[in-house]
Amino acid sequence: MHLLVEIWTPKPAWLALNPSDRRTFVDGVLAAVQPVMTEDLVLLGSGLARDDLPHALPCRYFAVWKAAQAAQLEAFAALLVQAGWYTYFDQVNVGGQHMPLGKVLSHQVELEP
User: Fold this and answer.
1) pLDDT in tens, 75-93
2) Exposed/middle/buried for 91, CB within 10 Å: 0-12, 13-18, 19+?
C-alpha cells in the first residue's frame, strides 16, 4: 500500500475567482481525475487544517489517499497538474510506501549521517 498526503492553501488567483467559477474549476478537476479513481485509489480522509496544533503547517486543507500501487498515486498527481490545480493552490505532497511505525522508527534510529 502507498500513501499520499496533500496539504494546500489557496493562492490569490483562487480568491479572485467568484464562487461560480470556483465550482466550475473544481468540477473540472474532479472529472479530470475520475479515470484513476478506482477501488485501488481511495480517499481516506480530508479536512480543514487546524492551526492550533504544535508545529502546525501554515495551510488550509489536507487530504490523505491510499493506493495499491505507487503508479496510481503518480497518475493521480499528474492529472492534477494537467487540470491546472497548481495555478490556484500552493500545495505540498508527502507520500511513500506504507510501513509499520516500528519499522519507520528503526530506520530513523539507524540512519547514517
Assistant:
1) 999 999 999 999 999 999 9
2) middle
C-alpha cell at 68: 495499491
Report how far Cα 90 is from the mean position of its chain's Cα atoms.
11
Q: Classify each residue of 47-57 as buried b or exposed e, where b means 16 or more C-beta atoms within 10 Å of its C-beta.
A: eeeeeeeeeee
- Mean pLDDT taken over the chain: 95
Distance of CA 58 to the CA centre of its chain: 15
Q: Which residue in the block uniquely carries the three cell numbers 547514517?
A: 112
The torsion defined by the Cα of 36, 33, 4 and 97, in degrees rounded to 10, comes to: 20
Report yes or no on whether pTM surpasses 0.90: no
Q: Are 88 and 81 in contact (CB under 8 A)?
A: no
Residue 77: what pLDDT?
93
What beta strand segments (E) does the chain contain? 2-10, 41-48, 61-67, 89-97
